[in-house]
Structure to design on (284 residues):
């Protein structure tokens, strides 16, 4: 029951109508008897983002999640950000403490925890190919560097974005990075040589979306991780399964990054199984 004392949380981004974050968090609040509610707030432009963040502060929202395409842009409107968020250069979780907004990044934690649950092998010295060069790609890349991967290749339809992210990673870490665009003649070879392929774009959310990469470049022993979680089986994952590859959806990342955010806001241990069950029941 929503009352005058109910604490408000929400998701800011665009698009957000597909998001399962509300069902996950609201199921957790109900299970633990916490007087919170989580909603979604579509924000269509950077100009609107500024007003949205000012609104969080003005009407005393407890906090919010931030998703595509604002994880980097939102930083300029916050008062403080965590050490990890500062290193990554992206925020996906905001906490409001008496009008002061604090930013965190729980994506890197959610990604690596979900990946380790799915594979039994070490990531050390593995080559990684990441589609996309935005805030999600950045968080994923940092978590992989900390696990000891040997090389990360960023591919984006706008090569300048991939180059910018590659330079940023080189500045912050000692890793090996390469940037290419999706029309590069070396694209197929780079995909084929990778041990882990990650889709960190929104391609795959819509039924009419094309494959983000050509299947002919894949080899038999690769791992494919698609950060898209709804639908549960994107076209990329379906094609990977046909080749008997290990495929992983973004559902685990959503779960664990959400649980971390939940604990930041509530200071209570997240009911993981309840949150996971709510996600599975509401997929597709």
């Amino acid at each position: 029951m929503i009352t005058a004392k109910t604490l408000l949380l929400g998701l800011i981004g665009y698009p957000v109508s597909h998001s399962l974050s509300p069902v996950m968090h609201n199921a957790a609040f109900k299970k633990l008897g916490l007087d919170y509610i989580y909603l979604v707030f579509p924000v269509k432009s950077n100009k609107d983002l500024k007003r949205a963040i000012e609104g969080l502060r003005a009407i005393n929202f407890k906090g919010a999640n931030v998703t595509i395409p604002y994880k980097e842009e939102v930083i300029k409107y916050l008062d403080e950000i965590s050490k990890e968020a500062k290193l990554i250069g992206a925020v996906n979780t905001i906490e409001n403490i008496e009008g002061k907004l604090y930013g965190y990044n729980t994506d890197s934690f959610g990604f690596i925890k979900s990946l380790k649950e799915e594979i039994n092998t070490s990531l050390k010295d593995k080559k990684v190919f990441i589609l996309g060069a935005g805030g999600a790609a950045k968080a994923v890349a940092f978590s992989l560097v900390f696990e000891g991967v040997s090389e990360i290749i960023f591919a984006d339809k706008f090569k300048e974005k991939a180059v910018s992210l590659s330079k940023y990673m080189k500045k912050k870490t000692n890793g090996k990075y390469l940037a290419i665009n999706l029309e590069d003649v070396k694209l197929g070879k780079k995909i084929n040589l990778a041990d882990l392929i990650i889709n960190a774009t929104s391609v795959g959310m819509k039924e009419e979306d094309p494959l983000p990469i050509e299947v002919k470049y894949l080899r038999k022993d690769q791992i494919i991780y698609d950060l898209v979680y709804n639908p549960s089986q994107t076209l990329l994952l379906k094609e990977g399964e046909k080749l008997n590859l290990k495929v992983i959806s973004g559902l685990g990342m959503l779960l664990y990054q959400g649980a971390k955010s939940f604990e930041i806001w509530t200071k209570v241990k997240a009911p993981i199984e309840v949150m996971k069950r709510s996600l599975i029941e509401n997929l597709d």
Observations:
- The chain has ten helices and twelve strands.
- The radius of gyration is 19 Å.
- Residues 79 and 101 are 5 Å apart (CA to CA).
